[in-house]
Design goal:
about 150 residues, alpha+beta, 3-stranded antiparallel β-sheet, two-stranded parallel ribbon, globular
Length: about 150
């Protein structure tokens, strides 16, 4: 375990939800194609224009919550448990999947496998504390900030 202080930009395409599946027929005329070229590159063809986007990592809609957690949050939490500060920041337009990625699906659809980053971080931290036999003390502080329509909530 080493401290990695770089900022990483990770793109996640969440699975489509029931409403989106129900409305899929209306989307049949959309003229774009998304191709995952590698774990780091995605190509969008929109009509005659082609755009390539590169990220530190890309997760397609088949990625599991555990895969996303292990790649994105686990290294940060390991560093936090070693005494360093860590930040996990979700950004995107409304409906892009920030809440799904961070918390998981709506409670009626929640399973242990579908838990998002925040429930997994909580379990990770408290499991670490439970298994620590060093006799050390822990102080846990967690902050949540939501910016909606340019206002803090």
């Amino acid at each position: 375990m080493g401290v990695n202080v770089q900022v990483r930009v990770i793109c996640r395409f969440r699975p489509i939800n029931k409403r989106e599946r129900d409305e899929a027929a209306q989307m049949a005329n959309v003229d774009f194609k998304l191709t995952y070229e590698s774990p780091n590159d995605i190509v969008l063809v929109n009509g005659k224009q082609t755009h390539t986007f590169s990220f530190d990592r890309i997760f397609d809609s088949d990625a599991t919550q555990l895969e996303v957690y292990d790649t994105t949050a686990r290294p940060t939490i390991e560093d936090v448990m070693a005494g360093y500060n860590g930040t996990i920041f979700a950004y995107g337009q409304t409906g892009a999947g920030k809440t799904f990625t961070m918390f998981g699906p709506d409670p009626e659809y929640m399973t242990p496998e579908s838990r998002g980053i925040i429930p997994r971080v909580s379990a990770h931290i408290f499991n670490h504390i439970d298994n620590d036999n060093s006799g050390g003390e822990y102080a846990i502080t967690c902050s949540f900030v939501e910016i909606y329509k340019e206002a803090l909530r």
